[in-house]
Design brief:
about 150 residues; alpha+beta; Arc Repressor Mutant, subunit A; Dna Ligase, domain 1; 6 helices; disordered C terminus; iron; zinc; Fe2+/Zn2+ uptake regulation protein; repressor; transcription
């Protein structure tokens, strides 16, 4: 079964009508990564032609509400979306370029981390974001392009 056929079935299983914009957005999300609305809108336009950014926002809202997509909001960064929703994973974010990578839970199932005091809450999931510098941004050439002094030994 093709990715498009699988996504048609995902939409139907979630009780959603299959429309070209929904199918195009979900298909882009299932390619992986953590795209922004703007990058999704560009990809959907490449598939379908004229589609408004508002239409992409609307589709994403429906996909998130139905559990077919997840939104992450790294501090200081645009909202990003992903189709990986069936688990409680975490994220690494590069401070240099904004690259986002998934990190599996190290201790099992959701919430996979438990605070010292739950204050009476029933825990459902944990959302952890690690911040750092990816290998591309940490390279000497990238550091010099950003004006970061080189350490010479």
């Amino acid at each position: 079964m093709s990715r498009i056929d699988e996504n048609r079935e995902r939409l139907r299983s979630a009780g959603l009508r299959v429309t070209n914009p929904r199918l195009a957005v979900l298909t882009e999300l299932t390619r992986g990564g953590h795209p922004t609305v703007d990058s999704l809108a560009d990809a959907v336009r490449a598939r379908l032609g004229a589609v408004s950014t508002q239409a992409v926002y609307d589709v994403l809202g429906v996909l998130v509400e139905s559990g077919l997509a997840r939104v992450i909001e790294p501090a200081g960064s645009a909202r990003r979306y992903e189709a990986r929703v069936a688990d409680n994973h975490h994220h690494l974010v590069c401070r240099g370029c904004g690259q986002v990578e998934d990190v599996d839970c190290a201790t099992g199932e959701a919430p996979c981390l438990v605070p010292a005091d739950t204050y009476g809450f029933t825990l459902e999931e944990a959302e952890v974001t690690w911040w750092g510098t990816c290998s591309a941004c940490a390279s000497p050439s990238a550091r010099s392009q950003r004006g970061v002094p080189q350490i010479v030994e």
